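Page header: ASSEMBLY MODEL / two components / 498 residues total.
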Amino acid sequence: MKTLSLAWAVASNSFVESVRHRFFTRFSVFAFTAIYASVLAGVMAMEQEARVLTDLGLALMEITALAYVLFQASSTLLKEAETKTIYLVFSRPVPRWIYLGGKMAGVMLTAAFMLAVMGGMHLALLLFRGFSLPEAYAWALAGSFLKLAVITAFAFFVSLFSTSSVSTLVIAGIMWTLGHFVSETRFLAEQVSGLKMIVLKSAILLIPNLQLFNARDAMGASCALTPLAIFSGAAWILAAYFASLWLLARKEF
Amino acid sequence: MSEIAVSFSEVEKIYTRPRLMGAVYNKAVQGLSFDIPAGEITGLLGLNGAGKTTIMKLLTGLLFPTAGEVRVFGLSPSGQAAKARIGFLPELPYFPPQVKPGAALAYYGRLSGLSGGGLSLAVAAALERTGLGPHAEKRISEFSKGMLQRLGLAQALLHKPDMLVLDEPVSGLDPLAIHDIRKLLAGLSAEGRTIFLSSHSISEVEKLCGRVLIMVRGRLAKTVLRADWEAAAGGLETIFVEAVK
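Prediction written out in full:
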């Protein structure tokens, strides 16, 4: 009970600081503009308007939320260390595993909040254009959230050994991009042999397959997000959390 | 015999800075052994780089000793039990400027294990005690340096710790703020709390402390009791200057 209450104190504080940040308002304006732009693109797509409006909107929402949570995840621990806020936390009876879990949960809550708000705006625009609720829409949002949660946990891990938030941002951004090309990497690995094959197969093991979370790609399945996708997401988040904890437990301030 | 609040035994702390080729090592403190009795105000004096902040961080569990042992009330300073008995004020503490002092204190109170009515009472008491009661409705961005220092003290007092560890508590404050903080610390000491503070101000340490540790280049050069500097010509300042020369 005490553990949960401590973790919630850290997570809620992290969430409130995230949404209170001056950049959050700018991202909100950008999100609205991006979603509105998807309406214009949809109009140009003629018969495919509903599909383009839905898919482009979902993609823009994901990218917008990604940019903000990456910014938060890469800077939150560094900022707390620079401002010495972390002294006030770690000189108290707050175990580091709870602090880390709370901080990660706070950024993930921010991601969920951004997706929920942008999803609401997007659906309102779709309904305004006279379209019905797109298939697997909630699953698509859940998939985007899982992707963001995986990359948030990874960014926290990188931020614990990286020298600046910019380098964390870049590394996490590269991981995000590579994560969308895992099936192509697998295909390439099957075409080559020797050292190239070993390098590509190792890369597949070290990069989260973010394509698994693209729920609308798997539409028609009984569950748009497969149990494998959910298990994979949870496994990557836990792995990044424990790796981060290993570093944080040894870190001095 | 009085309880020992802090015990350093042959403590050494080496900072390691990784470089492209190897690393650079900087010995911050070495061969450091001393005890601080509970219930006293002990001061830590030294020039810049003497190891004062390192000592503060070692006893709050923010740094780990390279060698030797640090104990706080007989416990490891990294453990939760020792931390629950300490209130720490770092030098120039930061608080989010857009919130009110009560909200900032409530967060740190929750981290200290307080909740519900107990938390509200502790926040109100800490604000009153540090003289911030009349400013409770202001945002932290409107606070002066002295008020921020009081807020720093308030967060350290929230959970009624047995020991206060204060890093430069009067640094950069105006004379009135210094007077108020001195009065507050004297009151806390009268309640039986142990206070361990570092300072560059010899006169402040002289007024407040019963015992002073003088650090020179990472080593404990001298431990001076109030009776010693009261008996010495030129007081604590002369003793300090002789020790660091």
